[in-house]
Amino acid sequence: MKFLHLFVPVLSLFLLIHCQSTPPTSTNAEVTAEVLPTKDLLPPPGGEGEIIINEKGEEVQNHSGELPFFQKKSDQPTELFRVFIASDSYAVRQIRHSDKIRRKPDPGGDELSKEEMKKFDLLTFVDDGMITIGLNSITGKLESIAFDRRVPRINDIAKIIQNDASRFNYEHSSKDGTPIITKFLISYQIRLYPGKTRDEIKQMLQKKK
């Protein structure tokens, strides 16, 4: 019994010291913050003070996790929009003049443009194009569309880009709804993924001939 009386206080003291010396465990949020890589903020590609708008009409920031196509500084003063299309992705970044004009979100049209890319997923391929848009000075509707400087190397891809740009609708900030900006550039980048072997592609080309 004497041994038991001595053992209980000693055991209690040991547990107390052990609990005080054990460091607190990290929460899930702390662990996640340590594991996830940080994304460095970058200057807006359209210039200091410009607000960037995505395909959903949301304000976003330029950062190191963005596509390089979206990150790079714009050297064309009239470049307003950048569009990335792949069979699994559709993204827009408006890089200038969001206080004057904005693209209206069109998720249904975005999905259709993605679908159009699927039939071209043959080999890994990246291309780009630039389109000049002209809007009617009264209605703000599309009046002219043409490739500018860079035309995609695949004709059918060029058609997809042109059709995509022609479906855009815009909101204008003027009180009467007339456009403040009537001419601007849209830059495109497209990405194809390898979906067929070289032999399959050769057979497709032979059938077309």
How would you characterize the overall build of this protein?
The chain is an alpha+beta fold and 209 residues long. It has six helices and nine strands; from the N terminus they run ααββαβββαββαββα. The strands form two sheets. It has a seven-stranded mixed beta sheet, covered by helices on one side. It has a two-stranded antiparallel sheet with strand order 5-8. β3 and β4 form a beta hairpin. Residues 1-36 have low confidence and may be disordered.
Concise structural overview:
The chain has 209 residues and is an alpha+beta fold. The strands form two sheets. It has a seven-stranded mixed sheet, with helices on one face.
Largest sheet: 7 strands, mixed
Rg value: 28 Å
Class by SSE composition: alpha+beta
User: Total helix count?
Assistant: 6
Principal-axis shape: globular
Strand content: 15-25%
What distance separates the N and C termini? 101 Å
Helix content: 25-40%
- Give a count of the beta strands, DSSP E runs of length 2 or more: 9
The largest sheet has its strands arranged as 2-1-4-3-9-6-7
Average pLDDT: 84
Low-confidence stretches: 1-36
What is the N-to-C order of secondary-structure elements (H for helix, E for strand)? Answer: HHEEHEEEHEEHEEH
